[in-house]
Write a sequence for this structure.
């Protein structure tokens, strides 16, 4: 049996989905390679052996991270002990930078080559981290078109592989079938609520979304609502949504259909989405669903972030297009009054939504071709085969 081992670290639901696709392709190329992972059920189903569950590690914001420091440090210690004992042939990192760059530093000390799939968004803030990444990472596979230029300017070995959502975002339901399944009248306009995929995000956004729904329903007739739960949502977050939505409706709030396992169908069937900023905005873009992007974080994290962030927009759609295609309503402006007014204006303006759809098509056209995970797997396989940078120091770094 081959002793070739890969350690893969994916810290959150969206990253795990992309990581599991990479593992499936890699196992076709090199079936003898054993993959060990920090992740969850999707990676296990793809053939990885789970060393640590990633649930509980994924949090957003400086102060949110501090509140979870114990579990994060415990996971890091267990993982680095495993690396010292088993010495994998390659470390594959998927997004999740704060944790993954610590793991990469340990790999560097152990002379284990590092392949990073899905770049940390350092082009958005704390760009100085690129110097650290250059020292720790042998090869980078990026999924946004402007990322390749950014890393090349800093002398890194980087390839743009396209965006993996081009392979995974699809729906087998027509709008009519979806509406019929959830008993939504075809004459009504449908708004899809997308409050996030992390427990913390959902707790920050759900009350805002529900209050926005209440105002929309009070000001307009013929509007239905659904809430699409993100794939891989933790049970704790799912229960929180069900409890809060149930209480909202029991207290006289409008009916909200809760959708599990069919988020793409829900988005595709909707006239408008209200979405917490994140990967889901690209999913909606691929499905050509007009949207409002919103986000809230803790006041102190936002105050610090405003001084560090280097980009004009927060939504991936606008960042990729290089212009505003979808409206962004963030922090103190993310209140029920502003969100409901904007949603109602868009629902009433077919021409504005049509222009937005044209813009979404433009942004999606810049995402490359399907097959991102397959291309990334080929890059990883080349490193394992010694055709890349296996057991060599990263660019510009000499071994000690």
């Amino acid at each position: 049996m081959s002793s070739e081992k890969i350690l893969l670290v994916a810290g959150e639901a969206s990253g795990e989905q992309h990581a599991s696709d990479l593992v499936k392709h890699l196992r076709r190329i090199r079936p003898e390679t054993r993959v060990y992972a920090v992740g969850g059920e999707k990676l296990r189903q793809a053939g990885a052996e789970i060393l640590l569950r990633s649930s509980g590690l994924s949090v957003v914001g400086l102060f949110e991270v501090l509140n979870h420091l114990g579990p994060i440090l415990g996971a890091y210690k267990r993982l680095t002990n495993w690396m010292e004992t088993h010495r994998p042939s390659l470390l594959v990192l998927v997004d999740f930078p704060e944790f993954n760059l610590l793991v990469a530093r340990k790999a560097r000390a152990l002379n284990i080559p590092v392949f990073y799939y899905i770049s940390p968004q350092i082009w958005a803030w704390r760009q100085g981290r690129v110097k650290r990444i250059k020292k720790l990472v042998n090869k980078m596979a990026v999924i946004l078109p402007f990322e390749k230029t950014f890393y090349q300017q800093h002398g890194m070995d980087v390839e743009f592989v396209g965006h993996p959502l081009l392979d995974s975002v699809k729906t087998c339901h027509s709008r009519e079938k979806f509406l019929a399944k959830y008993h939504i009248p075809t004459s009504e306009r449908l708004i899809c609520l997308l409050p996030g995929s992390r427990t913390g995000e959902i707790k920050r956004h759900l009350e805002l979304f529900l209050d926005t729904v209440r105002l929309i329903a009070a000001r307009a007739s013929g509007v239905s609502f659904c809430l699409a739960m993100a794939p891989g949502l933790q049970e704790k977050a799912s229960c929180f949504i069900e409890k809060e939505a149930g209480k909202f409706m029991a207290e006289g709030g409008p009916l909200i259909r809760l959708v599990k396992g069919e988020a793409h169908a829900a988005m595709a069937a909707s006239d408008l989405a209200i979405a917490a900023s994140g990967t889901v905005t690209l999913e909606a873009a691929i499905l050509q669903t007009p949207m409002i992007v919103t986000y809230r974080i803790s006041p102190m994290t936002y105050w610090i972030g405003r001084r560090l962030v280097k980009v004009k927009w927060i939504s991936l759609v606008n960042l990729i297009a290089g212009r505003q295609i979808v409206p962004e309503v963030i922090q103190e402006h993310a209140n029920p009054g502003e969100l409901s007014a904007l949603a109602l204006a868009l629902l009433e303006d077919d021409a504005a939504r049509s222009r937005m759809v044209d813009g979404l098509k433009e942004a999606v056209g810049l995402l490359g071709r399907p097959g991102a995970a397959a291309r990334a797997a080929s890059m990883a396989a080349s490193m394992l085969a010694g055709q890349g940078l296996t057991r060599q120091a990263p660019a510009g770094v000499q071994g000690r």
